[in-house]
Amino acid sequence: MKSLGPFEIDRIYCGDCVEMMTQMPDASVDLVVTDPPFAIDFRAKRSNYNRTQTRVLEGYNEIPQDQYYQFTVNWMNEVYRILKKTGSMYVFSGWTNLRDILNAIEEVGFVTLNHIIWKYQFGVYTKRRFVTSHYHILFVAKDEKSYKFNKIEHYPEDVWVIKREYWTGKIKTPTKLPVELVKKILLYSSDPEDVVLDPFIGSGTVAVVAKSLGRHFIGFEIVREYYEFALERLKDVQVEMFSGVKK
Ligand SMILES: C[S@@+](CC[C@H](N)C(=O)[O-])C[C@H]1O[C@@H](n2cnc3c(N)ncnc32)[C@H](O)[C@@H]1O
């Protein structure tokens, strides 16, 4: 089994990702896909996206607004160091924290390749403003000349219309990414056997999709309940027969 510093690949770990990433070797990861915590007064127990409150896990770890920029620079600096020269990162952001994310991307030294809009359903009802029904995905690279990009569609546009998943009757974390969305990213920006990292793994979607596509994965999560939930999901994953890109 290959390892990255003290961490085995194809495993997820419970703890602070910044602390854990500092122990990973330079240039050891091919792709980072991550949806970092927000800096707003987000409460997992509220009925987000019309879900039944009792089935939503508690303990979401948010970051105070005044610490958000420094927190972002800290984790991104580590990501930059551990990415290979051919590596890239997709970072998810709502518009509330977008300014901090964009500034951190520039400060850390990433090159921005695309600003993707993910359009979803289930926007929260509003009275005096438009309903937010999109998310931002910043696609950035370490080196503009050598990052990996499998052009699997002839005309790949930067607005993606993908539905959020509704999990009937199961316990859910409040911000789970759709499998279809993560799959698209992995097919474009990684190959089988590549190492895919999500430092903020939440319910484990990035690791689950990486495993199903025959990629290696590593993930970190600070909230134990989420970590255990992600572990359970990973147990059931079957590797798809075809997980590469036709060249
Ligand atoms: C927006 S959620 C990620 C959701 C995930 N993409 C999914 O599909 O379920 C962000 C996650 O980061 C975790 N988190 C916050 N601070 C962290 C830290 N310092 N280290 C590791 N995880 C952290 C939160 O507990 C939360 O589960």
Tell me the structural class. Answer: alpha/beta
Number of strands: 10
Percent range for β-strand residues: 15-25%
Number of domains: 1
What is the name of the CATH superfamily?
A: Vaccinia Virus protein VP39
CATH architecture: 3-Layer(aba) Sandwich
- Give the bound compounds: S-adenosylmethionine
- Percentage of residues assigned to helices: 25-40%
Point out poorly predicted stretches.
42-54
Shape: globular
CATH topology: Rossmann fold
Q: Compute the separation of the termini in Å.
A: 29 Å
Strand order of the largest sheet: 3-10-9-4-5-7-6-8
Order of helices and strands: EEEHEHEHEEEHEHEH
Note the main sheet: 8 strands, mixed
Tally of contiguous helical segments: 6
- Rg of Cα set: 17 Å
Give the mean pLDDT. Answer: 89
Structural commentary:
The protein is α/β, with parallel strands linked by helices and 247 residues long. Helices cover 25% and strands 22% of the residues. The protein has 6 helices and 10 strands, in the order E-E-E-H-E-H-E-H-E-E-E-H-E-H-E-H. The strands form 2 sheets. The chain has an 8-stranded mixed beta sheet, with helices on both faces. It is globular.
